[in-house]
Input
Amino acid sequence: MLILLGGPDRVGKSTLAAQLSELSGFKVKHHSQPDARDKSIFDIYRRNLEEGGDQIWDRSYLCAFILERYRRRNHDHLVEIMDLEFELSKIHEVIHIGVTKPWYWCAPLHWEELNKKHYPLSHWATRDAFISRQNGHHFNIGVMDNFYRYVTMFPSFMVEPDWDSHDVWSNVQAISSAERPRFTH
Output
């Protein structure tokens, strides 16, 4: 099984991934921005598949797609997502999990990061970077919601604000055992 976590920065995806790993025994694979030297922005995910076994992908391919789309104004990777999902459907059961928090919850974490010493920016540049992150946060949630509703071929759900990792894991198990048409592996 693959559990794919998506969502904006600073909403708790990595924390949830670690907690789900403890509950499930699945390996966590954390992903950052795509390597520009790769043939596809999704090659890192294909390399993870080669390792086999049940995995939790912290920052799934949906995150890479959304960030490339937002930061570079690029819309050309949707076909590659569909190709990747076709590949995944042949070898794994996949469940997408959307992790979100309201902007007011994430804002202090972004502000703190922007004000660390490795960001020696003026006040106006820090403020502009903060506003860009705010816009990115909302953009991410909108695209993620549309992706889960209209694009992905796999089951998905959004984490409710009052859920803990046990609630998320219970939902994964319920979806996994639910009667529905399945891809043959």
Notes: Residues 42 and 112 are 30 Å apart (CA to CA). The mean pLDDT is 90.
